[in-house]
Amino acid sequence: MDEDVARITELLREPLETSGFYLESVKAVAAGQRRALTVIVDLDESSTEPMSMEKIAESSRIVGETLDEVEVFRDKPYQLEVTSPGATRKLECPRHFRRVLGRRLEVQTKKDSFRLDLDDVGDTSIAGKDPGTGERRSIDLDDIVRAQVELRFR
Question: Rounded to an integer, what distance in angstroms lies between the CA atom of residue 54 and that of residue 15?
Fold first, then answer.
């Protein structure tokens, strides 16, 4: 099944990227007669827009049309799910942080925990202002234990 996932990943990458999407991952599960393929898609890192329902629908159409042309699960029926990483995903690499520029983060480092209004992302660090003190902080990505967007409800 790993070969199938690798093949599907390669098939989907180009058409998604051409349309402004980034292929996060492909997961396949086969249990008895049940088969499921989950494709996690995000917008490319040049966008800080959230992944809207319209974008999910557009990426689903691209994935569906691409997979209609190839054999998946030896042509046995399967369930296809196209989804986004979600608002609460862990931020782990520069691309993830670039997608949330301008947002407030909850950050836990090896030494402390704090909130940060993210305004700069480099290849090895992030920076922004502490919303409580206004103090500017720069954090090496290697020092981050956990980081995610602080959800705010209106």
Answer: 17
